Protein 1
Amino acid sequence: MSRRKKKLWYVPEGTEPTDFQKRMMAAEASGAIVPSPKLIKTEEQIEGIRLSGMVNTGVLDAVAAQIHAGMSTEEIDRIVYSYTVSHGAIPAPLHYEGFPKSVCTSINEVVCHGIPNNFDILKEGDIINVDVSTILDGYYSDASRMFVIGKTSPEKQRLVDCAKECLEIGMEAAKPWSFLSDIGYAITKHAHEAGFSVVRDLCGHGVGLEFHEDPDVEHYAKKPGQGMMLVPGMVFTIEPMINMGTWRVFIDAADNWTVVTEDELPSAQWEHTFVMREHGLEILTH
């Protein structure tokens, strides 16, 4: 006996659906993968996420003002923790699934989830991703920036620039009523044309009421027009991880967190939190 798939979008009998509900029901009836109603944020929730994002942006600005050669990643962690709590917020990474610090600091060949410590000292030519996530009044925001320490090699600088371009191109591809793979397809095309690769084992994600929500936002895709439909009210991150060499990565067994490129060539990443609007993406972090 076949089992009928439960519809995500419906209205009780005798209730007049809104134009938005009509569009969602029509999309679902056509066979599109649509987000569940719980993934559509209210304006009140979006405002809460926006305020969280303002603190998150302030954290990254504080790091930008102080980061320099000779400082340890532990010092970056202290900046993040101090700024966050002084603004009435909580660093989301701290104790998340056992993560021991308030921020992820990923240097050179570390793709993401690098753990701050007293032994990793920044030096001239390093590139580092500082990934900050903030909880304010129960609302989550998430963003990261790349920092170049002093002057780096032309190859590393191109990688950092390309990663930022991939984020911007992914943003442009994310149109209301388009599909998730449109983002990954645009990013993949740009990165490959620049001679770089796109990490496939990690992705962006829904965010706002929890640290990680549906949907997964893949940055690698072979075709556009696939995956979940992007509709107004969805809040998610785009955070492409772009590698100089292979896209393959491994998790360092020493801490079971740090993700490193398989060939130990450099990686770069930029990230923002967005809300989808009728006119396109609105950035909630800067």
Protein 2
Amino acid sequence: MSQRPYVVFGTSNRNKAIEATRVVAASGVVLRPLSDFPNAIDVVEDGQTFADNARKKAIEQALCLHEWTLAEDSGVCVNYLDGAPGVHSARFAGEDPRDDKRNNQKLIELLQGVPLEKRNAHYACHMTLVDPNGTIVFDVEEYCRGRILLQEHGQNGFGYDPLFEIVEYHRTFGELSPSIKAVISHRARATRRLAPVLVQLARQNVLPLF
């Protein structure tokens, strides 16, 4: 089997890795998970913004591994809650253990009594690609807008997907198919902007092979 160029995808979230990998597949570049690298580190996500966290994770991991590294930070921001949970999306209901059900239940409780027209929200995803020296090569943030429903609908997706309705479809990400999410989601939009950069780097033969 011929070797393929790769970058390290600096996340331990399997669902995020699957979504991003699906979008960049046509580029020919492999997103290798942190589990492939025994020396990978746990980066503390203490930034004030998604950009802060994505850049920090990418740079620190790249300097540790001496590898091209892609990192992302993402979450849901609810207008009525002044942008919360935001960067705290994964830990909204507590640090240990992180639990989608508990996070969703907390969001439902905080929005109790709030009418649908005031439940506007958006998903955000910030992606940062750095070279082995920690220099930022690509940096982008994308969004997907919708609203938070009164209760969960659907079993697809992860995180807040069963609560996050895409108004134009009258369905939550929990109800929509992965193929639709791979077109319209915040992560899909950011990754599509990344893909041409990966193609160009591969053509320049600057990426390592796997």
